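Limitations

Structures in this collection are predictions, not experimental determinations, and the ligand pose is part of the prediction. Treat each record accordingly. The example that follows, with 4'-deoxy-4'-aminopyridoxal-5'-phosphate as the small molecule, is included so readers can see exactly what is and is not provided: the inputs are given verbatim, and the output is the predicted complex.
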Amino acid sequence: MEDSRKQVINFAAGPSKIPRPVLLQAQKELLDYKGLGISVLEMSHRSADFIKIVNTAENDLRELLKIPENYKVIFLQGGGTGQFSAVPLNLIGLKEGRHADYLVTGAWSANAAKEAEKYGKVNIVHSKLDAYRSIPDPSTWGLNPNASYVYYCANETVHGVEFPFIPDTKGTVLVCDMSSSFLSKPVDVTKFGLIFAGAQKNIGCAGVTVVIIREDLLGYALKECPVIFDYKVQGSCNSLYNTPASYSIYIMGLVLQWIKNSGGAEAMEQNSAAKSKLIYDIIDGSNGFYVCMPASTCRSRMNVPLRIGNANGDSVLETEFLDKAAKNDMISLKGHRSVGGIRISLYNAVTVEETQRLADFMINFMKEHCV
Ligand code: PMP
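Predicted complex:
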């Protein structure tokens, strides 16, 4: 069957756009995977064919991010939120006293810190932020040398704050939620004890969460850690302790191949820079018509939250913007329900050309209202 669906540009924050070649391949293979007479959906997770799918996905990921040998790659269920629990359950016992340091720069790291409080003592290393618009200066951070790990979220999907640097933890294990910026640029994995990322933004569909963990950190899980979240258990059996999110792993594998064929993490970084520049240039040149909250030093390349008309957002203008965008086949631009306004998500599958279409639309919309 041809790809005859309606052509829209999907700027969703996650689940989000999947590259078209991936969908077409999945469509082609849905009924009959490589002549086996069954779909991946119907395939035993213990079969040689499925194990090949898992291993290929892992190898491609290792290649794309140059993941060193002494790191395990694990594919888990439970989403990013599952990892808010799994991280402390596995790592807070690394040092006596169960202390963990958290940087809280948006909704998702706030949720993670709250969850970790169930398992130990959480220290927010900076003064409480009234609004999530900036990253507190590292010279002001009060890191606890007895903390088992330091946690941060590389890109806050709701508030649009992205770290332009990797935090210096003064030797403490660094843990990162990379859910919404994973594989949008190369990353030096050796700087991290653990990286996790839900697949449904940059590398596939919902259902699978990637965990990359340095091997010496395995084996410290609290006794109450559920076995499906025990990194040592899952890491020692190729993520196949129990039935994994098999179809989501398959889709992720196809997306990883697409990233490889498209020039890898380096190309994703170039595209992300170009796409986000198109949008931020319009905001900056709009004389206050478009208002972006995060400080220019930590604006996200992935998620651009903005208000229209004024800093609180003119609800009439914002509704009109969303309606008109939808009429022009540009969808999923509504801001997160907790902050309102508009949010433009520019993940890997969104092209520069698609972003240019939105940029043109934004300019025209502004002209219509600022005569
Ligand atoms: N971390 C980040 C940065 C996210 O954007 C999200 C979800 N959008 C989560 C964690 C939670 O992921 P999930 O919904 O898969 O639990």
